[in-house]
Design brief:
Layout (H helix, E strand, L loop, with lengths): L1 H45 L6 H12 L3 E3 L2 E14 L2 E10 L5 H18 L3 E9 L19
Parallel strand pairs: 3-4
Antiparallel strand pairs: 1-2, 2-3
Helix pairs in contact: 2-3
The structure holds zinc ion.
Zinc ion (ZN) binds next to strand 2 and strand 3.
């Protein structure tokens, strides 16, 4: 009788131990899965991912409000637009082409307006706008990557 009870007790004990091991393995697997998800998400953040299409549409719309044409000629033109997302932050890089005879003060003022409009349209957006004359394109080889970019 004592042996039966003892045996039963042992079965129960080993049963619980077995269950304990299963739970422990389950917990370990869960930790691994969560860890993998964290690594995956941070790697996605580090890789340059374009912003969501609706954010891009908002950016395009905002820029369109500043684009200017006169007698078929483009006065203010935006191109070379690229976006990326890093975690919660959105970044946009673009060219703003302006008439070469514009004063630097006028060009800088317009750039400030465009930057403000972009930040108002997309909260948390960082805009990097490169100023260029209308008929000139930036030569990536002639300039270091950070040249002519706006301060952040
Ligand atoms: Zn350009």
């Amino acid at each position: 009788m004592v042996g039966v009870v003892g045996g039963l007790g042992l079965v129960m004990l080993t049963g619980w131990l077995w269950l304990d091991a299963v739970v422990a393995i389950g917990v370990a697997l869960n930790i691994l899965r969560e860890g993998w998800r964290l690594v995956w998400r941070s790697s996605q953040g580090l890789m340059d991912e374009a912003v969501a299409p609706e954010v891009l549409a908002t950016i395009d719309q905002t820029l369109a409000g500043f684009a200017l044409e006169r007698e078929g000629a483009e006065i203010v033109r935006f191109d070379h637009l690229s976006t990326r997302q890093a975690g919660q932050r959105c970044f946009v890089d673009l060219h703003m082409h302006l008439p070469g005879q514009w004063s630097l003060a006028r060009a800088a003022a317009l750039r400030a307006n465009v930057e403000q409009a972009l930040m108002a349209a997309v909260p948390g957006l960082r805009a990097t706008i490169q100023l260029l004359p209308t008929n000139m394109e930036a030569d990536a080889k002639a300039l270091p990557p950070d040249a002519m970019k706006t301060g952040s």
